[in-house]
Amino acid sequence: MWLVPRPLRCKVLPFQCTKSSLFQTTFMTLPVNMIAVDRYWLITCTTYGTWLPGDHRGFVGSALDENEKLVNHNQPFTPAALPNPKLESAIVHGLKCPPIVFQANHAEVLFKQFEETTRIRQWLLIAVAIMRTHFHIVIGVPDDPDPEKIRGDLKAYGSRCLNRAYTKPASDTWWSDGGSNRKLPDENAVEAAVNYVRQQSNPLLIWTRETGRLI
Q1: pLDDT under 70 in the chain at which residues?
Q2: Which domain holds residue 68?
Q3: Distances (CA, A) of 209 to 4, 37, 142
Q4: What CATH number is associated with residue 209?
Q5: Which pTM was predicted?
Q6: Is 162 exposed, middle or buried (0-12, 13-18, 19+ CB in 10 A)?
Q7: Are 130 and 179 found together in one domain?
Q8: Radius of gyration over alpha carbons of the chain, in Å?
Q9: Which pick of 9, 129, 193, 210 has the fewest CB atoms within 10 Å?
Q10: Measured between alpha carbons, how far is 67 from 82 in angstroms, rounded to an integer?
């Protein structure tokens, strides 16, 4: 377990984090009043129209396998669903506007909102990468809330700030439906997820709790 500030709750030790500079840095810089963070997630969401079901890169969601069995690919250790050109083509024809592609100014607005949302929710923001067509967030949360709710809050409050700053898109949303929630069961998994975020190609913005803004 990691630590996150909140009053009136008991203090506990984090993961056995003696070797990790990431965990040591976060632990040493948090305030005195702390509680345990019990769950860690790598959350991913794509912008509207940019990574559709059936995509040639594979996709995360429910799809039929080779035996016509419905498989949920948004589960830990589950591979992405296979490409399905017919499915992708059908969805493309139903789009309400061109795919949404972020610019640097969108990323700045979103990041500030992610910081505010996690502060209000008293979640621990560990790492963020915002690209032109998607974002990745590593986050720690107390107790065991539904990760769909965590991702939904990030998207919803992100949409509100984007709608205030820019014209609301014709799709009525900035995001694709759903997204990916990957549970991070231990310190090694959190470290790997943070490194994954750091190494994103062509990012608009990268931030980690250990290093601050990288881009």
Answers
A1: 1-35, 51-94
A2: 50-94
A3: 12, 15, 18
A4: 3.30.70.1290
A5: 0.73
A6: buried
A7: yes
A8: 18
A9: 9
A10: 13
